[in-house]
Structures are given as structure tokens and as C-alpha cells.
Amino acid sequence: MKINNDITIMALLANEAEKPARKLLKKYGNNQEASDRSDLEEKLGVAYFNLKISDKQKMKRDIAAIHPHKKFIIKYTKKET
Asked: Which of 3, 16, 61, 67 is the most exposed place for a label (fewest CB within 10 A)?
């Protein structure tokens, strides 16, 4: 039996940045609310899928701003001068 260990960005946000992810859902999901983290993950994905291209770009910027590993990523992807 093969186990799928893939973690989506929406799952990461729902589980590691729940409060800002709920705000994101309200902003891009027509003021929807999620009952739990699993529901939040699913609704964020649906909200993203249903957006126009220009709004997807805005949502991506908002996702990057609340990403729980943002500081780590920035620190280790900076070019050394």
C-alpha cells in the first residue's frame, strides 16, 4: 500500500497558520468560515481554484506573507554578498 505523504500549501496554512489562513478564506472565499482545519484546507483550495488569474496572484502574495516558514526560506535563499 502506497501512502501519500504530500503536504499541500493549503494544508500547511490550515495547520500551522490557522488564524491568518481563516482571514485569507474570508477575503478570497466570499466570507466563508471553516468548521475545522481540514475544512479550512479544502475551502482555501476551492477558493483559490475559483479565482480569476489576477486574483490568484494577489492570493499567492498573501499566502507568502503568512507562510509559517517564511523567515527560514528567506534566510536560506538570500544571495550572499
From this structure: 3
